[in-house]
Design goal:
single chain; 403 residues; alpha+beta; Naphthalene 1,2-dioxygenase Alpha Subunit, Chain A, domain 1; Rieske Iron-sulfur Protein; 2 domains; seven-stranded antiparallel sheet; four-stranded antiparallel sheet; 7 helices
């Protein structure tokens, strides 16, 4: 029996009301295989997904492989400097032709030696001259739509999707002085098969309520009661964000509670007294502190599991510091404390979602971001709900009817 019924659809209304009266989303949407399949088709296949940073492919010919909505893809920079993202699946017999990173001029499928360009075009196909009506132009590897935002490579399976950049307009003023396009990422690490749903990950990242409760002592400098939600929600927005003030200038997420790396030099004094935390659903979590920015890229692997890629961004001057390696190690050690505490909490939240006693809980005002995230989700759930058909009537107004 399907879980997609009018009752579940109607139940979302309670989660998108004002935060003072709203309740959490239904637990089943965090645990159901059927619901994740729905999300993969209607959210991950239609929204902008983050697949990494442009500094991973600095030079022409640089490439790496990753996954996007479960698909193996190649991210490459052409000789002209353009960034392309395309399927890693050979269009002859379906072999995955790459699963590494490096630099090359072309990609060759090991199976039958079909050769593709850095933009996915088919350049060579041996012994196909007798194949009737075979045109190499029609057999390139499928490209995804690509947009680079603040150094992040965003892709969309929908080639006609609206641009990503304009949906970030509410948040961008808070990022100007970080000059993220020219920031430096020393590398990333990936945690595999983390045991919670992708939405639990997003909610935890932007949860001001637990800040100095779960993370007491190490995050007391950035307390829950200093969370703020500076901009009213807009349904056209692609970002959900908050700011969180500090009790002292230049706070840092480490054992000293102070910034360890060189401060981004263009920051105002006001910006040095806070962090920002933002969601760009469905894959990118992003935050700032005075000495660094940090990002998590989420890749769902089941309703109960995700892979999570984590990276940091610094001002270029940070890498010139003679003690950079030691400071980076100290900074990362601090982050690992947060990661371990969050891992324990989110593991147990996901476990609780399977319980017959799982609640539709009430929100604190410090959880306004969750209601905004719910609105982002529900807007898309409603638009794509199985059995729901949208029709245009004579006066050009939109009405809905059951299918």
């Amino acid at each position: 029996m399907t879980i997609f019924n009018d009752e579940l659809l109607k139940s979302f209304d309670a989660s998108i009301a004002d935060v003072s009266v709203a309740c959490t989303m239904p637990p089943v949407i965090y645990t159901s295989d059927e619901f994740l399949e729905f999300e993969q088709k209607t959210i991950f296949a239609q929204e902008w997904l983050c697949v990494g940073r442009v500094d991973q492919i600095k030079n022409p010919g640089d490439y790496y492989t990753t996954t996007a909505n479960g698909e193996h893809v190649i991210v490459a920079r052409t000789k002209e400097g353009e960034v392309h993202v395309f399927s890693a699946i050979c269009q002859h017999r379906g072999m995955q032709i790459k699963e590494d990173a490096g630099n090359c001029g072309t990609f060759t499928c090991p199976y039958h030696q079909w050769v593709y360009g850095l933009d996915g075009r088919l350049l060579g196909a041996p012994a196909m001259e007798k194949t009737k009506d075979f045109d190499k132009k029609q057999w390139g590897m499928p490209n995804l739509r690509v947009e680079v935002w603040k150094g992040f490579i965003m892709v969309n399976f929908d080639l006609d999707a609206a641009p990503f950049g304009p949906t970030m307009s509410r948040y961008e003023p808070l990022l100007v002085n970080y000059d993220l396009e020219n920031s430096v990422c020393p590398g990333t690490f990936t945690l595999k098969d983390l045991p919670w749903n992708w939405k639990v990950m997003m909610e935890n990242f932007n949860d001001g309520y637990h800040a100095n409760r779960l993370h007491h002592t190490i995050q007391d400098f950035c307390p829950s009661n200093m969370a703020e939600f500076p901009v009213a929600w807009d349904d056209a927005s692609g970002v959900i964000f908050r700011t969180n003030g500090y009790i002292h200038i230049d706070g840092g997420f480490n054992a000293t509670s102070k910034a360890l790396m060189p401060i981004f030099p263009m920051l105002t004094e006001e910006e040095r007294w806070r962090s920002t935390f933002a969601l760009m659903p469905p894959t990118l979590c992003f935050g700032t502190a005075p000495d660094q920015a940090f990002f998590f890229i989420i890749r769902p692997t089941s309703p109960d599991t995700i892979d999570l890629e984590i990276g940091y961004l610094f001002h270029p001057s940070a890498l010139e510091h003679p003690m950079f390696d030691y400071l980076y190690e100290m900074s990362d050690a601090g982050v690992q404390v947060f990661v371990k505490q969050d891992q324990d909490a989110t593991t147990k939240v996901q476990r609780g979602m399977h319980s017959q006693f799982a609640p539709r809980g009430r929100y604190s005002w410090q959880e306004e971001s969750h209601v905004q995230f719910n609105r982002w989700l529900v807007q898309r759930y409603q638009r794509n709900w199985p059995g729901r058909k949208i029709k245009l009537v004579a006066d050009n107004t939109v009405t809905e009817k059951a299918g």
